Fold this sequence. Notes:
By secondary structure, the chain is mainly beta. It has one helix and 15 strands.
Amino acid sequence: MSVRKLKPITPGQRFRVVNGFDAITTDKPEKSLLVPNKRSGGRNSQGKMTMRYIGGGHKKRYRIIDFKRNKHGIPATVASIEYDPNRTAFIALLNYQDGEKRYIIAQNGLQVGQNVVSGEGAAPEIGNTMPLGQIPLGTIISCIELHPGQGAVIARSAGAFAQLMARDGKYATVKLPSGESRMILVTCAATIGVVSNSDHQLLVSGKAGRSRWLGRRPRTRPVVMNPVDHPMGGGEGKSSGGHPRSRNGIPAKGFRTCSKTKASNKYIIERRKK
Length: 274
């Protein structure tokens, strides 16, 4: 993993920091795992804008990712590590022994030609997926299920990881990327290792146009709006503002919005750091 700082030969390149893409081995995706991906532009089925600041962007095709890793006991060989425009992490193409091909989220250190396997009895090695009940305590994990068979929903973005802290009965205690410690059923699966492309947070786009290529339109700051548009709008000169809050008036900093009676609260041992 590496990043490159470009020479300032144009204004857009002056501060730009790009990914070195050292881990990428091919720029041709597997055609059988591509599906069309239609853009909404922030509009709903009636054509009305329901999400602001979305629109435009480069055309993309979706890569079908195997988050469930449910081909248990069948070894697969890593054929390539690829860029995925739909997520921050890199993806790996697996060739299973029975001939099937699948994409998975790539972990740091996953190499072309390496064998990976999922299911009970797998070795706790990078790229292997196994139940939390069989992973050694203290292991760094990612792509974690919250319900057995659901598929990975936690720690899937670039550089994300969690740590298996303890086991007690049918629950395992996992320290999540946010700092929260939570109980998860030991029958839920997780993948060994840290998610790839951990240098993603160091990238600098360099110019506004690069955000437009990603489908992000310019965002208006609330303090420059009128009172009719936002609670923080209005005022003479630079005297507008007030306490940070959302368009609906909900305070933005330090105000807890999670329900105190939420059913999953009992599984949270330690809250995330503020």
